[in-house]
Amino acid sequence: MITRKSKAKRIVLKISGEAMMGSLGFGIDPEVNDSIAGEIKEARKGGVEIAIVIGGGNIFRGVKAASGGMDRATADYMGMLATMLNGLALQDALERQGVLTRVMTAIDMRQLAEPYIRRRALRHLEKGRVVIFVCGTGNPYFTTDTAAALRAVEMGADMIMKATKVDGVYSKDPMKFKDAKKFNKLTYMDVLEKQLKVMDATAISLCMDNNLPVVVFNMTKKGNIGRAVKGLPIGTVIS
């Protein structure tokens, strides 16, 4: 198990779609996209292998559409397509900064990206490429958090780094409640029993079953991805 003092060799970075839109309220903010790419580029300098699972909530949210009456499976597939847009945008930003990448999709779209094949993804990582996983697990009813946990286990990652807009996990929304308490460390059962809105229960259970640590940190602070990769004290560690 990785600790705060040990350096990761391979990580899965989970980036929400909301992080891509910055302050725009919708879509992809080019400056934020370039900034995320720069952070990833810097974090790779120590030789860490980075895979990314990206969400699509800045473009379309399947759960919200389903709550409005849309068929849930259809809504989820539309959400998966939104992750492809984000993945291609991040790939472009990374490659403009000289970082070789591969986008791999759980839904076959060969004109846009490689189909997800586990052994091929592993080879890409071993060759120093950043791999961006899009379209979740390829199945409706599963979130991109679950996709991140699944891909991290499949890739043999040392940890999942969940990028957020706050500096860890709190007892309640720190943006709304001044008395919100920050947790530096949590167990998987703490998250499930306290019903903390970190990752969905399926994702946390998968991490627990495979002893996969999760680091929740603030992505908006420059250098935080690199700090988390190096095992420095940052955010909240779930293990």
CATH class: Alpha Beta
- The fourth-level CATH homologous superfamily is Acetylglutamate kinase-like
Percent strand equals 15-25%
Please give the alpha-carbon distance between the first and last residues.
8 Å
Radius of gyration, in angstroms, nearest whole number:
17 Å
Count of the domains = 1
Q: Provide the CATH topology.
A: Carbamate kinase
Shape: globular
Strand order of the largest sheet: 4-3-5-2-1-6-10-11-9
Folded structure, characterized:
This protein has one domain (10-238): Acetylglutamate kinase-like (Carbamate kinase), CATH 3.40.1160. The longest helix has 25 residues, at 72-96. Strands 4-3-5-2-1-6-10-11-9 form a nine-stranded mixed sheet, with helices on both faces. It has helices at residues 17-21, 30-43, 62-67, 72-96, 118-126, 144-155, 188-194, 201-209, 224-229, and strands spanning 10-15, 49-54, 101-105, 114-115, 130-134, 159-164, 169-170, 182-183, 185-186, 214-218, 236-238. The protein is globular. The chain contains nine helices and eleven strands.
Topology:
Blueprint lengths: L9 E6 L1 H5 L8 H14 L5 E6 L7 H6 L4 H25 L4 E5 L8 E2 L2 H9 L3 E5 L9 H12 L3 E6 L4 E2 L11 E2 L1 E2 L1 H7 L6 H9 L4 E5 L5 H6 L6 E3 L1
Parallel strand pairs: 1-2, 1-6, 2-5, 3-4, 3-5, 6-10, 9-11
Antiparallel strand pairs: 7-8, 10-11
Helix pairs in contact: 2-4, 6-8, 7-8
